[in-house]
Amino acid sequence: MNPATAHNMNGIHFDPDWAPVAAPKAPVSLQIVRPLDEESIPIVIAEDDPVSRRLVTAVIEAGGFRTIVANDGNEAMTALRAQEGACIAVIDWMMPGIDGAEICRRIRESGRRVYIIMVSARGTKIDTIEGIDYGADDYLVKPFDPNELLARVRVGLRVMKTQEALVQRVRALESTVAEVGLLRFQIPL
User: Fold this and answer.
1) Which listed site, 15, 16, 31, 138, has its alpha carbon 20 to 30 Å from 161?
2) Distances from the Cα of 69 to the Cαs of 135, 159, 172, 173, in angstroms?
3) Could you tell me the pTM of the whole model?
4) Residue 177: what pLDDT?
């Protein structure tokens, strides 16, 4: 046995020279990573503060995503209802009209496929839990790192693509089951 190699109790070899490397500090500039596919799922942005709205929109567009911008909760609901397919929503919690929590509730009741990232200045663990319990898929506290927002949008895109693949597979299985049901009466046993 090499003296530089250690064993754990299960006999698995570990190299003591290997050690996890600390993650590099986030760069100041945006890390642009293009969407996973050429056709970008639209990102609905709902933010009532004009400065925050411009910042979120600029970050998401710099990441290569198509945005639909809403000034408040009412506009956000209109924009979300207008989407025929899946989409991602980055919504502020506190907005005039319909707030982010109500948007989450309505979207979940509708059964629409929307990945919701709730963004809020409310930053306690209780706030995060409440936001997710209202129906948000993710929760981001203001002020946020632009790279983190883009990373979370990319996670949303991966989730939406996985859901779409599952929907397609279920449809294929249902079609196959229907064919087997028809053939059952045509094939002698």
Assistant:
1) 31
2) 21, 22, 36, 38
3) 0.71
4) 81
